[in-house]
Amino acid sequence: MDGNDAPVRKLRLEAVEAALREVSAATAAFEDSPEGKEVLRALQAAHAELSRIGSGDDVREIVSAERSLMEHEREHSVTSRAQADFLDRGIKEMDVALNLIDVVRSDPERYRKMTAAAFSQPRNRIQGLPKDDVRHVLKGHRKDLGGILEALPFGMGSFRRARSRLLEVRRANLRQADQLYADLQRQALGL
């Protein structure tokens, strides 16, 4: 490239800036519309309900809520095959976690037998507790939500803030679920 490309690059940057201004204006117009206000109210209601669920002490309810959100995203928000595959895998992982939570709750002896050999090495434990599928799923999904949060587009005003808050409460709920599950593990293992 030579110095003559500078005016072309400047024109391209100006076009990008103009397009971003259009997006911001359209977003602001939608936010002020009755439909936009309804979407914002729905996001706020979802945040409040997720906060309520996360403040409880039922790990199964928290994980079930996250699974339901993933199903909803799968049905209503998928724009590519990769997204669909990602959500399908996540839903299956949540099912595995829910099944194992049920085992830990209802059959501690079976859980002790399942984990005795498989998680005997210190590297397979977190604070002395088995680093089983539930712990992996919760940690991995929390990390995935963090990536989505970081990738949210800027300039979306109150929608971005509401969506960010929703992702943040989901991450907080998964942290809470991890702590509650650790308590269940301790009970099941007699620790």
Please characterize this protein's 3D structure.
The protein has helices at residues 6-32, 34-54, 59-76, 81-106, 108-118, 133-151, 157-189, and strands spanning 125-126, 129-130. The protein contains 7 helices and 2 strands, in the order H-H-H-H-H-E-E-H-H. 15% of the residues are buried. It is elongated and about 70 Å long. It is an all-alpha fold. It has 2 domains: 1-32; 35-189, no CATH class. Strand 1 (125-126) and strand 2 form a beta hairpin. Helix 1 (6-32) packs across helix 2 (34-54), helix 3 (59-76) runs antiparallel to helix 7 (157-189) and helix 4 (81-106) packs antiparallel against helix 6. It starts with 5 loop residues before the first helix and ends with a helix. The longest helix has 33 residues, at 157-189.
Which of globular, elongated, flat, extended, rod-shaped describes the shape? Answer: elongated
Range of strand content: under 5%
Total domain units: 2
Number of helices: 7
- Can you count the beta strands? 2
Calculate Rg over CA atoms: 22 Å
Q: How do the strands line up in the largest sheet?
A: 1-2
Class by helix and strand content? mainly alpha
Order of helical and strand elements: HHHHHEEHH
Amount of helix: over 70%
Show unreliable segments.
none
Distance between the termini: 67 Å
What is the average per-residue confidence, as pLDDT, rounded to a whole number? Answer: 88
Sheet bearing the most strands, described?
Answer: 2 strands, antiparallel
- Assembly type: single chain
